[in-house]
Write a structure and sequence with these properties.
With 362 residues, this protein is of the alpha+beta class. The chain has two domains: 4-90 and 172-356, Zn peptidases (Aminopeptidase); 92-168. The chain contains eight helices and 17 strands. An eight-stranded mixed beta sheet has the order 1-2-12-3-13-16-14-15. It has a six-stranded antiparallel β-barrel with strand order 4-5-8-7-6-9. Helix 6 (277-290) links the parallel strand 14 and strand 15. The longest helix is centred in the middle third of the chain and has 17 residues, at 186-202. It is globular and about 65 Å long. The chain starts with a helix and ends in a 6-residue tail after the last helix.
Amino acid sequence: MLKQQLVEQYLSLEENLSKENILKTLEKVANTLAPSQSIMKTRSPVIEQLINNYELDNVVFTSNYLGTGNAMFSSKKESPSILFIAHLDQISYLVDEQTAKNVWRLIPYCKHLSQIDVRGKALRYDLNKNRFRESAAGTIFSEKIGNTMIPFFRTLEGQLESGDRIVYEFPINVEGDLVSGNIDNAAGVTACLVAGSALFKAYPQSNVGFIFSDEEEGPSDNPIYFARGVRRLMNKMETPDVCIIIDGHGGREGEDIGEGTFFTEKTAGGEATVTPPELFVKIKSIGKELHPFGINLFEDTGRVSRSDDIPCLAVTPNVISIGYPSVNRHHDQGPPTASLKDLANLAKVIFWLGIMLDRNYE
């Protein structure tokens, strides 16, 4: 049962969990380019400033948590018992060989799914300034070679060098309730940040940690090294009670956009995470309790991709994936798109899960 006092606190803070706050936060996170292995120098400073603006005295933010390259936003308790994990890196590419004037073949550092031409930029690390800078701009496009779509980059400005990382450049754009841009997985991170801004006020005794991981968009065809940002972290922490993975769900080609928040019993069709019955039924029960408050939490019966759930399984069976409906997450056949209403709903779900899964909540 939802405690009346917490319901009243939630209602007083519900404005914090609005679509407007979601959009303001998402623009700042998503419009900061952040290829894998870069978040300490790219998006983490943006997130730290956002958290500082929350003016919470019971939280801490660490951009290189336990030396793993992942960021952590948590209560000041040393080892959180409830982990929400949302990857902060975006899909990116390495430089392969030059194939024509101003054209380079790329090596995917992610699952390459795009079949369209999309604006892109190259980022190069500047040792003197200790940061990434834009070194080239152009277009990412694909050519079918055999049965495989191969990515290429055609520069309009600058030249590529080894060590550069190429990313999609697609600033946040809003049309009604729909938002498009580099939302994978800036949207999930945004929901966590907005939820945390209210959670740590309403439930200051919370032992929640939000992990913003690097290298989730890692080598997709090699399970041993996939999601290695969190893989570096899990064996350095005390075993959490539960790991909740926050990412986009795209198994029904966008048909579910606008319906709310989804959870799944399994990822990769049961070949990756299978959530234990006790935890799965608990989440279903919480969904029913939240529905009267206009918070929609439904089971996703479509296929859900694996994510940072993979390394969590090495330390605990209590893993579940929860997320927002989306389409074209990797610029498949159009811009990555989700619903602002769904993201606000997700923030509310995260808020309540952070309380109701607490071992001391009765």
